[in-house]
Design brief:
The chain has about 170 residues and is mainly α. It has six helices and two strands, in the order βαβααααα. The protein has a two-stranded antiparallel ribbon. α5 packs parallel to α6. The two termini are about 45 Å apart.
């Protein structure tokens, strides 16, 4: 990894991914990135009443020890700050500016954060696509719990369903 991505447990720069995991990943964006990450950590920990900073267990640490990562979800009513339609227009223009930016060679399109997912959701309508193996697992669990699974299209479940059912 590049030497600017992480430090060892002693705080020295490293290009070794294993040493980086034992140490710490550095925030993107230097001091400003650290400030943003620090404020987000404070908000997540303090406002949710959960762990923050060094109190959060390592993601790849002891699986018997709870990870204890805090999350915070905030809903903002834009109408308290400005006209919602004006906000929508300005946000759409900002996303359009991202999409119209200069692309690196080989990059076919630029997207605002979340835009590819939003487009897939719009195209899917009211349907959620899941992998056939996941559908088979859910059907198997529903049967084990004696819950009637929702009807699925024949092509929603892979041929593994019958094989999975035979094993339960």
């Amino acid at each position: 990894i590049p030497a600017t991505w992480a430090v060892t447990s002693d705080g020295g720069a490293t290009t070794d991914a294993t040493a980086a995991i034992a140490g710490m990943l550095l925030p993107s964006g230097g001091a400003k990135g650290f400030g943003l990450a620090f404020l987000i950590d404070l908000m997540c920990a303090l406002l949710s009443g959960g762990a923050g900073g060094a109190q959060v267990a390592p993601l790849y640490g002891d699986p018997a020890m709870p990870y204890d990562c805090s999350h915070l979800f905030i809903a903002i009513d834009v109408a308290h700050f400005c006209d919602p339609q004006a906000f929508r227009i300005a946000a759409t223009a900002a996303a359009d500016r991202v999409g119209q930016g200069k692309r690196a060679p080989g990059v076919s399109a630029l997207h605002a954060p979340g835009e590819p997912e939003w487009r897939r959701r719009q195209a899917a309508g009211e349907q959620v696509a899941i992998d056939g193996a996941v559908a088979a697992m859910l059907v198997r669990y529903a049967r084990q719990l004696r819950v009637s699974p929702a009807p699925l299209e024949a092509d929603d479940i892979s041929a593994d369903t019958e094989q999975s059912d035979a094993q339960t």
